[in-house]
């Protein structure tokens, strides 16, 4: 994993390498522990899962979220190192501002470096623009595509995501093979995810999947992840879960500029728990060999899924609680943690009550590690939503399943329908008459 | 002078059989203007006529008389004359000139209202409606006036015999608006909320090209009554005119806020929302209804509890529906059990309430009779529907419109065209 990480980061930071060679080694020394484990987050381990822009953005996100000075500074320091490898002088100034000299002179704003980068960027941009103009006058499709692509890469590296997006999209007209199209789509998806525009993401995933030649397994896995993210952002957890579960093990560390395999396990696991029913959970998650590989990376999620399936709700909920602080620091998941957690909890409660005619609330409260009155409230909400067919005996603290009397319900419905029909027909006849009247009233006027 | 006497003589001579009456009708029409010019002197001549035999002539004279100003001292005499006429006139003769009859009744109604003796007008107007209408499904112009008098005199029950008729034929849309609006108010007064909703619903969904004040007021009441009766306000059905859909909400904002607040089921919020708009409700004379909305929230919340609980202590009920003491909760539950709104028993020893399922088993004779009567009613209604359908498909105006439409469609799908119009 280490070697891989360095390899991907290398080309991106080539030009800036000479300035921060020392830090680089230091960063990787500590090795990688399980990123999600434990109470306190290991920022370095977490950061090492990602490469490219997303690493910086994620670190900044953590820094913004944390009041705690130590972790905030740690995150900022890592972000600083990472940025220095790249060329985004604007982001650099921002991070340097945030550090505000709290990390000593080594991490102060390096004005000279920033200016140099900006100057170089200016030159390079002119060069690329010129090249592109030449290509366009010559009307060589492939070269024009390359030109736009280079411009897109350039803007992306400098943090001008909007421009990068535009240029990547422009290459579309000059794509000749499915390989080009897929490359274009992947570029657009990457930028769109950074921009938070997930509508584009699902759009371009669709385009990429429609190419006549089937792409290689790694690309397929990437596309699945991107689609899953898009669905998750749209709060369509079931579809998101399906996409994550379909992600092949080929993903490995090939898409670290967007998502780490650990994330696939967490996102997919939580979405699946929140939206699947028991059989689906068994067939698609627990018995899914591909996904099992991902789950091995995050043993907590694996355990909690198994606990959920085995109806050990207390330990399942405990795992969830432990995971929560770290999940809240995830750039994609944090908005959805609350919704997913309540859905999972409701599912657990519904499943618990399902097989019984009567349930002792004291026992149930024990199983869910809560008190009776709290549980009663949750049950009440679920009954009101018609998710549990049962009624609470609040005196003896017992939940009784309720079986609707089909015959009576049918009678009730029939009578109601009759009354409604009668009312509607009468009202309709009356309206018809009024319309007729209006027609009569207008007729003479037309003659005159 | 001569002409009136001559006319009276004609009336006396020509009231025997239908042909004579129609001849008399044309004579009377010719002398209409001269009658009007001598309006104030006509009263003595009326005494020479018998309202039951000479109804048509009597009507013309009476109408001419009432079109002039009526002095205060003559008013009670005038009222008596009209009441007697309404009670004894012959229905065939007055139906020859319904507008004259209506105008007499209207001036009668105005007089009654001016003298603030609305109750005196209730019975005569009911008779007048029965004599004027050709069938019980016919809405006359007198209907709204009658209901107005019932409302003013608070004789709600007197209006029932008219209100319970199904109305299908309408002369004037305005009559229908007013009739349904007043009818809705009377039904509210009698606490027949489902009927009131039906009436107000008719006003709100009636076809209209321009918004009118009646519809706005009716919509306000419709919102309140829907909340009391159903706990929510249904959205406009799709046949509602575009004008109503677009504009009604703009004029009824406080009521819509109230409805939104009600749905949350929080008593204190509803109370504050009412307090902020209390002047508007008062100005609309709807404060009483608004208070009923407020108290209906208790009921609704208690009813909701029956869905989730088998037993619940009075203390918890009071907490759940935001009542102050368990004692109050007990009163509410008790009243609801009495009214048959919930099925429950109170155990005073433990302070527990056990909720039961609806004990109705749909096995009793009464229930079967009830179902049978519903079926009969629906069958009658569907017969009517098919006869109207037949009628429309023979209607020349409809056919010309269809044939015009048909040209625009391909021959292949002309079959679907009639269906499209049958549904509207």
Automatic annotation (TrEMBL), chain A:
The gene is LOC103711146. Residues 233-406 form the PCI domain. The keyword Cell membrane does not apply. It comes from the Eukaryota. Belongs to the CSN1 family. The keyword Cytoplasm applies. SUPFAM superfamilies: Winged helix' DNA-binding domain. This is COP9 signalosome complex subunit 1-like. Keywords: Cytoplasm, Nucleus, Signalosome. GO terms for cellular component: COP9 signalosome; cytoplasm. It is found in: Cytoplasm; Nucleus. Residues 1-29 are annotated as: Disordered. InterPro entries: CSN1_C, PCI_dom, Rpn7/CSN1, Rpn7_N, WH_DNA-bd_sf. SMART domains: PINT (SM00088). PANTHER family: 26S PROTESOME SUBUNIT 6, COP9 SIGNALOSOME COMPLEX SUBUNIT 1. PROSITE patterns: PCI (PS50250). Pfam families: CSN1_C (PF21151), PCI (PF01399), RPN7 (PF10602).
UniProtKB/TrEMBL annotation, chain B:
The keyword Flavoprotein does not apply. GO terms for cellular component: COP9 signalosome; cytoplasm. Its main location: cytoplasm. GO terms for biological process: ubiquitin-dependent protein catabolic process. Keywords: Cytoplasm, Nucleus, Signalosome. It comes from the Eukaryota. Pfam families: COP9_hel_rpt (PF22788), PCI (PF01399). It is found in: Cytoplasm; Nucleus. Residues 192-360 form the PCI domain. Gene3D superfamilies: 1.25.40.570. Belongs to the CSN3 family. This is COP9 signalosome complex subunit 3. The lineage of its organism: Eukaryota, Viridiplantae, Streptophyta, Embryophyta, Tracheophyta. The gene is LOC120103660.
